[in-house]
């Protein structure tokens, strides 16, 4: 798709080009890039790319949020540009020294569990559907009772709902071998060995219908159906051990000896040491989690509902996958899911409030679909693209999540699965909990929405785009208005105007570019005003009419505002983000208050200095919003122009 091809090119350019990309991969919502030089990334340019919903550094990676589905297509287009992709595991490996030890450990833990979550999601949905179909109220609609359900049908549903958890160690060990560089097939076999039918079934031992084997007189041995940590550490150590062997066993014997020794040593350790030790650790973790969730008066929901999305921002939330798996495996239900669902719904509602309240069309176009994404269970676009950007909406979302979590905890809601939340999550609560599930989420959304609307977001057209330099160029310019809603000052000359239109000549020689294509949302969104932009062919800016210098950016020297005798003002903003050069490469020939004549040299700028700084040279030339003398501005958006000769815009004045 041509559109996605263009986006891929823009992404590569914005992160510093192909040579700055060490490796890249993607997950469900984000393009994850390891860059060689962080300073070469143009953050503003990235955020202004179509379909980008946020971008940030986390755990040593530059992550660009596109959302589910879209990220896959963009990833494919980046690959087509000749950049070799990297598995997420290799990408994580390159960033393994980033962050503290705890962050690295949690990141690795997440790498193992994320790939198996889709299977557990499907299992949870199967559980929800079985719960719905076996409800007496539902069966009554068809004139049946639970006793009328066919045993064969129940057996079939049991296959759907029990298989993933019965063989969970095989999935975990497979993924661990894959992450830590071993042969995944060995991981599968080791995991299956841990749940071999020859061993006493863990569930049967738990309910007293079977007894653990005793090895060497003191080591209890059982199957590890539903266990996570034993399989995780068997996979971790097994992969490391396999790699150790391959470096030392002759190639001629590697095919035979390496898998033989790996399986033999690791199953002995797994059953007699790793399994018993970490199964006990699992029991402690589960007990602690259950204790927290059982706190009275909704305290658990209040705390978890508030802090969950903060933990999501830190990127260490994957540790909760383990907790949810344990809850489902032991209890058949997941109280944690109900609480975090309200936290996600609240962030979506806060984002929705921003989208409905703002008059900024670009922000509205970002916020509304991002809120929908949150209601479908993916909160990153809403959090990083909108709520955290203005902070207060994020905080209001946290409060809404706390209130909703409090209710979910009071109602003792518990889903039949994991990783399916908000709207899709309704499928996990079809066993009679659905009305209370909907109520808890609605309350969370209403609280977050109302608080954001009243206190969390102030509609300010310029500053909400976060473009400080563009705002500074106008806000410090004296009489220039920053927004159409601002009271425009009356120029001393405006009342005496005797003309009905003003033809603006090009102040710079170069190629005319539509303002919408300027890589700065404050300009491209026309929040600063209407006009055009010019890609300079030479580093000089001239006065396009006789008038007065209303303002010069004295320190940065990158912007000049002129005022015509009619009261029309013109902003010439040389380059994008050039305020950061602090005047380097610029030479201003006029001062604020000077009278200038058409064709007079205003500013000289070194184009090579700007290019070497990695900044766009494109120069917005526009009439600021809020001038009471201006009826409308009609820009010219085609062709090359020479300073002082071609007309680039016509300003129609109020009679």
Keywords:
655 residues; alpha+beta; Gyrase A, domain 2; 4 domains; eight-stranded antiparallel sheet; four-stranded antiparallel sheet; 24 helices; 20 strands; 49% helix; 15% strand; elongated
What does this structure look like?
The protein is of the alpha+beta class. The protein folds into 4 domains: 2-98, Glucose permease domain IIB (Gyrase A, domain 2, 2-Layer Sandwich), CATH 3.30.1360; 167-293, no CATH class; 331-456, no CATH class; 468-653, Glucose Permease (Domain IIA). The protein contains 24 helices and 20 strands. Strands 15-11-12-13-17-9-8-19 form an 8-stranded antiparallel β-sheet, covered by helices on one side. The longest helix has 43 residues, at 251-293. The model is unreliable at 461-497 (pLDDT under 50).
Mean pLDDT: 81
> In percent, how helical is the residue content?
40-55%
The end-to-end distance, rounded to whole angstroms, is 49 Å
Radius of gyration: 31 Å
Q: What is the CATH class name of the largest domain?
A: Mainly Beta
Outline the fold blueprint:
Elements: H1 2-14, E1 21-26, E2 30-35, H2 43-47, E3 55-58, E4 61-65, H3 70-80, H4 88-94, H5 101-113, H6 117-133, H7 136-141, H8 151-166, H9 168-179, H10 184-194, H11 202-206, E5 213-215, E6 219-221, H12 229-246, H13 251-293, H14 299-314, H15 319-331, H16 335-357, H17 361-375, H18 380-390, H19 392-410, H20 422-425, H21 434-456, H22 468-475, E7 501-505, E8 510-514, H23 521-524, E9 529-536, E10 540-542, E11 547-552, E12 559-564, E13 569-573, E14 586-588, E15 595-596, E16 601-605, H24 607-612, E17 619-624, E18 630-635, E19 640-641, E20 647-653
Antiparallel strand pairs: 1-2, 2-4, 3-4, 5-6, 7-20, 8-9, 8-19, 9-17, 10-16, 11-12, 11-15, 12-13, 13-17, 14-16, 18-20
Helix pairs in contact: 1-3, 5-9, 6-8, 9-10, 9-12, 10-12, 10-13, 12-13, 14-16, 14-19, 16-17, 16-18, 16-19, 16-21, 17-18, 18-19, 19-21
